[in-house]
Amino acid sequence: MDLLSVKLKIGDREYPMKVKPDEEERVRNAGKYINDRLKSYRSKFGIDDKEDLLAMVAFDCMVDKLKSDESSSAVDSSSEDRIESLNQMIKESLS
Length: 95
Description:
Layout: E1 4-10, E2 13-19, H1 24-45, H2 50-94
Helix pairs in contact: 1-2
C-alpha cells in the first residue's frame, strides 16, 4: 500500500510523516485537535511554555482515552451478558 507524505504543524513545529491514505483525515484531525487544545490552554491558563502545554494536552487526551476504554469495556461486558442470556433462552426452547 502506498503511503502519503504529509506535514503536520503542531504548536510551532512541523512534523513530516507518512500515513496510509485511509488514515490521512484521522491524522489531520488529530493534529487540529491538539492545536485547538494548545490554544485553549494557552488562553485559559496564560501558559506560554510549549512543553507544559503539550504535557497538559497529552494528559487530557490520555484521561479521555481511558474513560472511553472503560465505557467500551462496560458495553462489551453488557453485550456478552445479554448474548449469554439469549443463548440460554434458545437452548431452553430447543430442549
